[in-house]
Amino acid sequence: MSSEVLRVRVKALEEELERLKAQLRAETEEKSQTSESGSRQKKQRVEKPFDFSAHPRRHVALRLAYLGWQYQGFAVQENTDNTVEARLFEALLKTKLIQDRQTSCYHRCGRTDKGVSAFSQVISIDLRSTQYGGGLGVTVPADVDVKGKTSADELPYVKILNRVLPHDIRILQWAPVESGFSARFDCQSRTYRYYFPRGDLDLELMAEAAKRYEGTHDFRNLCKMDVGNGVLQFQRTILSASVQPAQLPHPSVHNDPHQLFVFQVKGLALLYHQVRCMMALLLLIGQKLEAPEVIDQLLDVEKNPRKPQYSMAVDYPLVLYDCHFEGVNWRNEIEEEIHILNTFHQHWVQNAVKTQILLGMIQGLQNTSTEMGSLQCWLMEGSRQKKYQPLLSRPRCESLESRIQHFVKRGRLEQEEGENGEETTVFRGKRSKHAHLTTTNQIQNKNSEAETEESSLQNL
């Protein structure tokens, strides 16, 4: 074969190679465009809005438990999303059980603070339902044709939510309720528990002192006055208050300082930080730094209209133990109960083992000549005083009247003239259930004997 023929053949092969490369590039681009188009279509299908108007809604109560130690409280806050309620609504929205919070008819029973846990928090809310045939708490949209649609079993609300909630927040039960039911306003009573070690406390004295809380009293000296949110009345009813062992001790163990006890208080409604202030007084009484009569003196707002400065008990031992409702028939999901128990057993094993390790370290360092330090000092906020100053001889906080005037100046409260010519204070924002109209002259009369000194709250 001549060289000329070879050159022609090589050139033809090179042209064929370029043609094949161009064809391959075209096919690759076409395949890529087809794939991208398919992905966009798939994405569009996923993002298609859920049609809530095609489904019934059901007003239900949900009972939940949570470990609040890692959260900034239960209720949603403007400055953080690390709250139990924020996680709860993320789960409700993700599972398409609600369209949004604003239209869900949501109420909470109690508002626990940072670090506080709950065994039995209750909320009421409208959730998506399968009950086209109606039922307790069910609302079927008027434009939905229910002919031919049979009501299937109700959605397993507990299972659905627990699969997407953090492990330290668990839905326990649900119940269908009337459309007007409110977890906040229909609650008959709320029970709180505060856990603490025996230490060297006089438990009998504490139990006797706790009984003095029972009844209807003005608790302004045993709470943080939340005047800025419209709470202007501080009378609350305590149905029962007691100090008792958290569990029965082993017969061979007598007066173990590490044995846990519980202060349990049951009331109709409680004030901001009320239980922690009540517990702080009991700890002082248990150490015999104060007499039980100091409770009666602080509940007498005629003689003591201004709160002495003292530290609260810390937050993490406090638990919302129970919210009681009449006529609510809770529904259990048996399989989910096992799942919930396994979750809490996991938490218990981890913490019980850590507790025993710490106790072993403590016992290993102690000997017969070593005096154990006070355990209860770790349950009080702030630093401990070297020389104790009795409560009633301490500087006082601002009076209720001063707090009201402060928020009037800031525009949070308004003062109007009542029917009898007296000044009446009205909250301008969202009203609390207990934010009733308050006659300023009555407050002035109660505080007329008080000193006008206004000092800021400090740790004592």
UniProtKB/TrEMBL annotation:
SUPFAM superfamilies: Pseudouridine synthase. It holds the Pfam family PseudoU_synth_1. CDD domains: PseudoU_synth_ScPus3. Keywords: Isomerase, tRNA processing. InterPro entries: PsdUridine_synth_cat_dom_sf, PsdUridine_synth_TruA, PsdUridine_synth_TruA_a/b_dom, PsdUridine_synth_TruA_C, Pus3-like, TruA/RsuA/RluB/E/F_N. Gene3D superfamilies: Pseudouridine synthase I, catalytic domain, C-terminal subdomain, Pseudouridine synthase I, catalytic domain, N-terminal subdomain. Residues 24-50, 411-435 are annotated as: Disordered. This is Zgc:56653. The gene is pus3.
